[in-house]
Write a structure and sequence with these properties.
globular, 17 helices, transmembrane helix, single chain, transmembrane, O-antigen ligase domain-containing protein, mainly alpha, ligase activity, ligase
Length: 450
């Protein structure tokens, strides 16, 4: 199998001028949302290494082209940017690979390359979210875009549920993932469409479903494409079950419950409690105090045995990987697989499934704390600036749904390593909204300027 078929490379390269056309056709705010979501949903999975610059992927091509398009068509937006203390975690996260490389003797060139790659993957989407989605109206457009993206993916998911995951192979000439066995679940198929793994599809449908439920509940949108939103949400929820992603289904339930209880209690305590549980888990995991066996036992009732075995396998690997990471606690081991565990013959005996252990092993506590703060700190500030009693207001509801969604994404990062730049874009938007002072009118919280 050729990992990079000609049509896949052509599709990614052609995407660059298409992004410029999108910027000419739509307002910049909408153009960014269309570009990111379309690339994530439909471009091929590849990693094409070019001399002297970071690898070309569908999202790096999108980030490069959007950044250049912004410079050409909307440069004043960049020059007028004003930073905030909430931007520091992302800044540290982007530059910490350089320090990790120097600390491990890998040299400044390796460090610089790692910084560029990390900045394109995380910093650029965040920055674009900061300058374009820094208002409630901007986050509303993003929320609607995610919702529409989920709806558009429904027929593709249904096709692959019926015929098996073949669309990536049909269109681009190769399967995105060689391990086809992971697409088989419960006597059927788990769709991957144009993503690397079925879990990514499940997470995307979960995100669209959560946003759809809250847009419906808050009456932010009543109709879309001449369909009542009720039926569109039902279609997403049915698809959510059919894609056979139990973890995503659980996260969807947690997200809906948190939003409903927070509004009922008129405070964000349920969301903050969830964030606290994430931090406690990370604290225990970093210090080697895993509760993997207890977790597996507690889930043994009502959960398929193979799922319990899979979870226990992941947690057992994190035990040995975290022990290796603690040998270089502050800045980690850097790149080139140095954070992995090898036997006496040099064979890699570790499996890295979760993003947190990859970050902890590669960039140490500095990387892990900065990334966690990037994802969770803006949500905490948002929940204080915009009280939960207002989360059902049609103007605020989309932003509240995205804040909860980012928390669920952070939970997913505890188990999986599937970074999604759309969430990083959303994180930048949440920061932009959170640093603005809301005004109070008739006991409801609004931004003075939408």
């Amino acid at each position: 199998m050729s990992l990079y078929s000609p049509q896949a490379l052509v599709a990614v390269l052609c995407w660059i001028p298409i992004v410029f056309y999108i910027f000419m056709r739509f307002p910049p705010q909408r153009a960014i949302i269309i570009s990111f979501i379309s690339a994530w949903l439909f471009l091929p999975i590849l990693r094409y290494h070019l001399p002297g610059i970071p690898a070309l992927t569908k999202m790096s091509a999108t980030c490069y082209s959007i950044l250049f398009a912004t410079i050409i068509y909307d440069a004043t937006r960049i020059t007028s940017f004003k930073g905030s203390w909430l931007d520091l975690p992302m800044l540290i996260w982007c530059i910490c690979p350089f320090v990790s490389s120097i600390a491990n003797g890998l040299g400044p060139y390796d460090g610089f390359t790692a910084v560029v790659e990390q900045t394109m993957a995380w910093g650029v989407p965040y920055f674009l979210g900061r300058i374009y989605l820094n208002s409630l109206s901007g986050l509303r457009q993003l929320a609607v875009g995610i919702f529409m993206g989920g709806l558009i993916y429904i027929p593709f998911c249904l096709i692959e549920i019926r015929i098996s995951p073949q669309l990536h192979h049909i269109v681009y000439g190769y399967h995105a993932r060689e391990d086809f066995g992971q697409t088989i679940r419960s006597g059927g198929y788990r769709p991957t469409v144009f993503m690397e793994h079925g879990l990514m599809v499940g997470a995307w449908i979960m995100a669209a479903s959560l946003i759809g439920v809250w847009l419906w509940r808050s009456k932010s949108i009543k109709q879309l494409w001449n369909f009542h939103i009720r039926w569109l949400v039902v279609a997403l929820l049915v698809t959510m079950v059919l894609v056979k992603s139990m973890g995503a289904l659980i996260l969807l339930g947690v997200g809906i419950v948190i939003l409903l209880i927070a509004v009922q209690l008129r405070n964000a305590f349920p969301l903050l409690l969830l964030i606290l549980s994430i931090l406690v888990h990370l604290f225990l995991a970093v210090n080697g105090n895993f509760i993997g066996d207890q977790m597996a036992i507690s889930l043994s009732q009502g959960v398929p045995e193979e799922r319990i075995a899979s979870l226990k396998f992941r947690l057992d690997n994190e035990v040995i990987l975290s022990a290796k990471a603690r040998e270089k606690m502050i800045f980690g081991w850097g790149g080139w697989g140095r954070s992995r565990v090898y036997d006496e013959w040099g064979k890699d005996i570790s499996v890295t499934d979760s993003l947190w252990i990859i970050v902890f092993g590669g960039n140490g506590l500095v990387g892990l704390v900065s990334l966690t703060a990037t994802l969770l700190l803006p949500i905490i500030i948002f929940s204080q600036r915009y009280p939960a009693r207002s989360w059902l207001d049609p103007k605020l509801a989309p932003a509240a749904a995205i804040a909860v969604l980012l928390t669920l994404y952070t939970i997913d990062c505890l188990l999986n390593a599937m970074p999604n730049p759309v969430y990083t874009l959303a994180s930048g938007g949440i920061v932009g909204v959170s640093i603005k002072e809301p005004v109070v009118r008739s006991k409801k919280v609004f931004l003075s300027k939408f």
